[in-house]
Design goal:
The structure is a single chain. The chain has three helices and 15 strands. The protein has one domain: Jelly Rolls, CATH 2.60.120. It is 15% helix and 35% strand. The radius of gyration is 20 Å and the shape is globular. The protein is an alpha+beta fold. The longest helix has 21 residues. The strands form two sheets. Strands 2, 4, 6, 7, 8, 9, 10 and 14 form an eight-stranded antiparallel sheet that branches.
Length: 266
């Protein structure tokens, strides 16, 4: 009876969380080894993108990165390609100190391609130092596009939960919007304060609008630091990685019912 009750609980918990689609996660459960060649829990392999210097190497669930190093990419769960939708990425991001003021760089991006020469980058996640101890986070849409930085300064050498929403449609509609949140307080996007937003409505020179997205890429540009608890998903709540109070209440209620049934059985 005890085993069957806990089996039922596990099944109910799975069914209750099956609506959101998680496309990529990292880096818990990965080997302490080079990231290239490892599979995400969703079954896609991290592959080389560009720059062979300083290979990205997982260390106890964290992905340390350095300036001017190897860049990598990974496909979405099931090899999915998305269009006319909004995708989300969340990560615990730390940017290390030791940089000059006004140092600007990027750490990750959505993309339509596995080739850097294609230049089909979607939303990019940026940082720009203010002084020796603080920075602003920022976002862009597209390769060589403009950038928007939030007004609030954050500390170097400190981890923050960054969540980015990327809304895009077919190229003919000329519309890509990127929205950034820092340290969301719940899994409800509507309750959060927007830190920065950027919209691109046309191609920039020879760099086109993105109309499909199938990859997430990690870059080693000019920063050192670390990335943890990466989640690419179709919902804000999954990317924010904050369990909703209703989920806690639901699980607690199921536990009470099962416990009472177990006691009566005895």
């Amino acid at each position: 009876m005890k085993k069957s009750l806990f089996a039922l609980l596990s099944l109910l918990m799975v069914l209750g969380t099956a609506q959101a689609t998680v496309l990529v996660t990292g880096f818990d459960g990965y080997d302490n080894a080079a990231l290239i060649g490892q599979d995400s829990p969703q079954g896609q392999t991290w592959t080389y993108l560009q720059n062979a210097n300083h290979p990205l190497t997982v260390s106890s669930g964290s992905l340390p990165f350095v300036a001017a190093g190897e860049d990598v990419t990974v496909g979405f769960s099931g090899g999915a390609v998305y269009q006319n939708t909004t995708l989300y990425v969340g990560m615990d991001l730390t940017i290390a100190s030791g940089l000059a003021a006004d140092t600007e760089g990027y750490v990750g991006a959505f993309s339509a391609n596995t080739e850097p020469t294609a230049l089909a980058y979607g939303a990019r996640i940026y940082g720009k130092t203010i002084d020796a101890s603080t920075l602003n986070f920022g976002i862009s849409a597209g390769f060589r596009g403009g950038r928007t930085y939030g007004a609030t300064a954050y500390n170097l050498d400190q981890s923050y939960r960054i969540v980015v929403a990327y809304s895009f449609s077919d190229a003919a509609s000329n519309n890509e919007t990127v929205t950034m949140y820092v340290n969301p307080t719940s899994g409800d996007e509507g309750e959060q304060t927007i830190y920065a937003t950027y919209t691109r409505t046309s191609a920039i020179g020879t760099y086109p609008l993105v109309d499909t997205v199938s990859q997430f890429q990690v870059f080693q540009d000019v920063f050192s630091g670390s990335m943890e608890d990466l989640v690419v998903a179709t919902t804000f709540s999954e990317a924010a990685a904050i369990p909703e109070p209703t989920a806690f209440a639901w699980c607690a209620g199921i536990l009470v019912v099962l416990f009472v049934a177990y006691r009566r059985r005895r």
